[in-house]
Amino acid sequence: MAVTPEPYDTIECDVLVVGAGGAGMRAAIAAAEGGCSVTVVTKSLLGKAHTVMAEGGIAAGMGNLDPEDSWEVHFADTMLGGQLINNWRMVELYAHEVIDRVLELERWGGIFDRTDDGLIMQRAFGAHSWRRLAHVGDRTGLELIRTCQDKMVHTEGVDVCMEYTLTTLLKSGDRVCGAFGYNRNTGRFVAFKAGAVVLASGGWGRMFRYTSNSWECAGDGATMAYQAGADLLDMEFMQFHPTGMIWPPGARGILVTEAVRGEGGLLFNAEGTRFMLDYDPVKKELSSRDVVARSIYKEVQAGRGTPHGGAYLDVRHLGADYVKRKLPSMYEQFHALASVDITSQPMEVGPTIHYTMGGIRVEPETAATTVPGLYAAGEAAGGLHGANRLGGNSLGDILVFGRRAGVAAAEFAKAAGASRAIDDAQIAAEQADLLRPLGGEGNGAAPSENPYKLHEDLQLAMQDDAGIGRSEESLKRALVTVLTLRERSAHIRVSGGRALNPGWHTCREITNMLVISEAIIRGAIERRESRGSQWRFDHLDQEVEFGKINFVTRRGDDGMRVESVPLEPLPDRLRPLLERSRFYDPAKLPKGYLTESAPAAGTTGKTN
Amino acid sequence: MSVLDQPAASVHAPAEDVLTASGLTGEMLTLRVLKGVPGGEAAEVAYQVPVVTGMVVLDAVHYVQHNLDTDLACRWNCKAAKCGSCSAEVNGHPVLLCKTRVDDLPAGPVTVRPLKSFPLIKDLVTDVSRNYEVNREIPPFTAAPDDGTPWRIPQQDIDRLYEFRKCIECFLCQDVCHILRSHDYADRFYGPRFFVRVASLEMHPKDVLDRREQTREQGGLGYCNITKCCTEVCPEHIHITDNAIIPLKERVADVHWDPVRFVGRKLFGRSGD
Ligand SMILES: Cc1cc2nc3c(=O)[nH]c(=O)nc-3n(C[C@H](O)[C@H](O)[C@H](O)COP(=O)(O)OP(=O)(O)OC[C@H]3O[C@@H](n4cnc5c(N)ncnc54)[C@H](O)[C@@H]3O)c2cc1C
Ligand code: SF4
Ligand code: SF4
Ligand code: FES
Fold first, then answer.
1. pLDDT tens profile A6-50
2. Cα(A128)–Cα(B90) distance, rounded to whole angstroms?
3. Which of A51, A326, A337 for mutating ligand 1's site (highest number of atoms within 8 Å of CB)?
4. Is the ipTM of this structure higher than 0.90?
5. pTM over 0.90
6. Domain with A294 in it: what CATH number?
7. Which CATH code of 3.10.20.30, 3.40.50.1100, 3.30.70.260, 2.30.36.70 fits the domain covering B3-126?
């Protein structure tokens, strides 16, 4: 029997962009310039996406201060930082093109701090060989988002739907032909019919208790892609940023930018020892994030933590004027939230969940996913950063691959023609699912569940059992919790109506977070080694075999499947570039790397 | 020695043991929130919220949402005073909820209400779409044709622009400006946030448009009588009146007469450029 959906609005466009962070806006501009009508959908107001919070800068091998720098060195640093399981082709495109994207931002009116010669200033950042991050004070994300926003709203052919949530992708056969969701303020349903869809929906930190992420980061886009049959890649890799605020409790998790260390900030334990000298004598405080985060964690475990369980980050030696000029929002943040004057007192910091390296699996050139008509870019996509992202590589990522996704989606939409038929049965089923939590008193025996309580339980389980350090035992415990929460989630009930009801909005975010959490845990269980952000207490070593694969998560008939796929090795033409990194050390290369020779062209062609 | 070579202190270390204390003070806070929908009766609802050391008003609102009233609407994103989403009036003052510490407020109940000048959507959330329309009316950054060479810009030019570029579009300044509050002018007056925007374009060394006529005509710059209410509420401490509006008035006055320009010059000693 055919089910008739409740009436819904329909909006039609050539390219639908999910997300108005840097990746989404850059994609929209590119698609509109490619001659398409574009609709951008965002859960919050324009200009408020997670990108706005980025602080430190955009990594680009321009060499304005250090002439030794180049895209090649940037390539090498990014590959080494990612422990060589990055998609090397993405890294190559990225390191090349990010320079143009930064200059383009400047031509669109974005401002950057300057060198003495008046060129774009670049700052040092962890595990980057040279001073590389183009920045403006410590608010580069705000600058990026405002610049793209102004460019986009003045670009012909782009419409923006603010405060809409998309919940599912619509498919016509095996092709994606739009998305469905609701207007958050009215609760009214809406279907977007499109020739192609770009997911630029950002990352997912909110299933962890302490995170620098905004509420939006629930993994909606990745879940929609997964449900539509797309592959997810290397989901186990979640970045802990070493320096989040740890006190007061409400501020816990809020980011303290790496620019603090980039500008010369030092880390001390409670005994006054500069412990990074022991953990990484070469890069010290500016070691990669995985290493610094683990070092702080270890200091705390060893009983050398600060009163609130972290480390001291100190900038007093830099001088008050310099601190206020180069790190103004850090000064303000500690002053307002913690009553700490960072020019005269040290900051207390500890690791916070920050970034998702894993994500939707894409084709490097086009950002196409494994489902026709569906593209993904920015933090939502995987592959560029491997096992650990270097700071500053995300703002560049969103510009480079946001643009590529927009260009490719526009071409696909134009070629796909006008058939954008949508299936009312799919819509009716989605409506029923969305409305269930509003349906009164649960179903029978099970007590009704509060979505926020479920969220808190999930956060505790992920933080404790799938967090910075993991073991098979803890991961299995986390998996049991997630599966139990999934059962409980069927009984979520909320009061109120459909108009701007945050409790109701949270319901779908919880089920999305449960899907993504399961993927993180399953990937982490399979990866029986420590590499980059994955720290396995029961497998402390890096293993040769895991350096030759990526893990792909996809939806199977009987639930979630995780498979390993062979990684295409670095081709001979790019191998020598690795030595250009200042941090290249044959003794520290991922295990087995030097003993493997590059394969003859074409032998492993189609993976990744 | 690399960190990975060292054995972990314990296989499973719950974050709670090593990393947190709850920060509960044992005190309770009465949070009074104006709940309502357009056209309906708005009612102030009082909630009891446990006080946590250093908590901000947004923490208290979240406590209510999670534990007492899941339907209470409030906008927020970053919870770090960086996105400008959580604007509301606390004890009558327009502020960012995520930057307003409960221990900085006078003892007693704390009242939270939506911004007054914007149409209500629900509870603490208002319709700020008019601001986005105004932004579209302002011609975008326009540079001279690209000659292919990298731009060289002195840092001092960037420093001057930086103040304007810090704007997080919280629209608190738009909320308090009396010109915008008197609805007769609302569609003829950009408002302080957008004078900041125009100033950032007008003073950009590479922007080539002359924005003076537009700012006077469509923007209604002349209506501003520099009361400075906008500057007082700006969470980014942008000197909206002194550094954006008055210099713009100066520039506009080079082509048109404006009574306030004279005062501006006397008080602040600004020149046109
Ligand atoms: C505090 C902080 C500091 C950082 N500093 C830096 C830095 O210095 N350098 C650097 O390179 N990186 C930095 N990062 C990382 C970087 O900011 C992000 O990775 C990047 O901005 C992600 O951009 P994005 O466009 O992919 O997604 P986002 O900016 O997260 O945007 C996602 C968009 O998708 C929308 N969306 C999501 N789900 C839905 C849905 N269901 N329906 C409709 N819309 C939806 C959201 O509303 C939003 O508009 C930082 C991150 C944080 C948190
Ligand atoms: S100074 Fe001008 S813009 Fe600011 S509040 Fe007063 S009248 Fe409005
Ligand atoms: S100028 Fe200040 S008060 Fe006005 S919108 Fe910007 S940040 Fe808010
Ligand atoms: S939530 Fe972003 S400014 Fe308050």
1. 999 999 999 999 999 999 999 999 999 999 999 999 999 999 999
2. 44
3. A51
4. yes
5. yes
6. 3.90.700.10
7. 3.10.20.30
